[in-house]
Design a protein that fits this description.
The protein is an all-beta fold. The protein contains no helices and 23 strands. The chain folds into two domains: 115 residues, Methylamine Dehydrogenase, Chain H, CATH 2.130.10.10; 114 residues, YVTN repeat-like/Quinoprotein amine dehydrogenase (Methylamine Dehydrogenase, Chain H, 7 Propeller). Helix content is 0%, strand content 45%. Strand 22 and strand 23 form a beta hairpin. InterPro entries: Coronin, DUF1899, WD40/YVTN_repeat-like_dom_sf, WD40_repeat_dom_sf, WD40_rpt. Keywords: Actin-binding, Cytoplasm, Repeat, WD repeat. One of its GO terms (cellular component) is cytoplasm. It is found in: Cytoplasm.
């Protein structure tokens, strides 16, 4: 028996879908922000259009052979910096903006008009909103960042539940763990921090992430204690690191990918029943990378 574990995903390859399933004629744009520029629920896709403050919205599933049409939602008076769908409601969308506000939108089904006013407005903040994310297990709670400030909001009351402190520079990423118990943040001061928002406002743990402070992104894996960060090293090479919050002083594993003048990698992950696959895509690269996650990045 081989002493090396062989991944069943080693021969995985990507194949494009039928052209009839493609969504074409999309007028999208990439903005220089820390957030996501496209998000999907189980029913809708929302993305940054080529008009500042305007999102494109399209049905995820086509109906028979009819062509899907993009409708446009005027959200903000400035760039949309991040967006997220509620995990409890396919039609509830949160958008953050450089106009310093967070807005929640009740979207409609296929063929129905989009709203002209938001259902809820949070803020304004002192600086542009950078990133936001709904809580994965509690309805009506989200985390957002603006400058050095990280807030956990009660959406119904339109008030912050707590503010997470200790960041010394721009917060570039804030993500809930899968059970929603803790929040991981990445900051331009090169530090990763772990917070338990219910217990205290200060970080319970922190460590240096990447040697370069450009655009660090975070994503939790399927294992509760494991976190992946993407960023740059001193040589401006893009890299990914795997962290265990129980041994947070150094990364479990790291992989160097390439040198890029563009922004960092967008981190995402997908789980199989027994072996997670981690996907990475860079805005300046036409390729999508995959890695198997265990105690090493393979």
């Amino acid at each position: 028996m081989s002493r090396f574990k062989v991944s069943k995903f080693r021969h995985m390859e990507a194949r494009p879908s039928r052209r009839e399933a493609w969504i074409s004629d999309i007028r999208a744009v990439t903005t220089p922000t820390c957030g996501n520029h496209i998000k999907s629920s189980c029913s809708l896709i929302a993305f940054n259009s080529d008009r500042p403050g305007v999102l494109g919205v399209i049905s995820l599933e086509g109906h028979e052979e009819n062509k899907r049409h993009v409708t446009y939602l005027g959200c903000h008076s400035d760039l949309v910096t991040d967006l997220d769908f509620s995990p409890f409601d396919d039609f509830l969308l949160a958008s953050g903006s450089a106009d310093r506000t967070i807005k929640l939108w009740r979207l409609s089904g296929t063929g129905e008009a989009l709203p002209s006013v938001p259902g809820v407005v949070l803020g304004p903040e002192e600086l542009p909103v950078e990133v936001l994310q709904f809580h994965p297990t509690v309805d009506g709670v989200l985390v957002s960042t603006a400058g050095k400030t990280v807030k956990v909001w009660d959406v119904a009351k339109q008030q912050p539940l707590t503010e997470l402190e200790a960041h010394k520079d721009l917060v570039q990423s804030a993500v809930w763990s899968r059970d929603g118990a803790i929040v991981g943040t990445a900051c331009k001061d090169k530090q990763l921090r772990i917070f338990d928002p219910r217990a205290r406002t200060q970080a319970s743990q922190s460590t240096q992430a990447h040697e370069n402070n450009r655009d660090i992104r975070l994503a939790w894996t399927g294992i509760q204690e494991h976190l992946v960060s993407t960023g740059f090293n001193q040589m401006r090479e893009r890299e990914a690191k795997l962290w265990d919050t129980r041994l947070f002083s150094s990364a479990l594993a790291s992989v160097t990918l390439d040198t890029s003048p563009g922004t960092s990698l967008k981190a995402g992950w997908q789980l199989s029943p027994d072996s997670p696959i981690f996907w990475m895509a860079g805005s300046s690269s036409p390729e999508c990378c995959k890695s198997g996650l265990s105690s090493q990045l393979l």
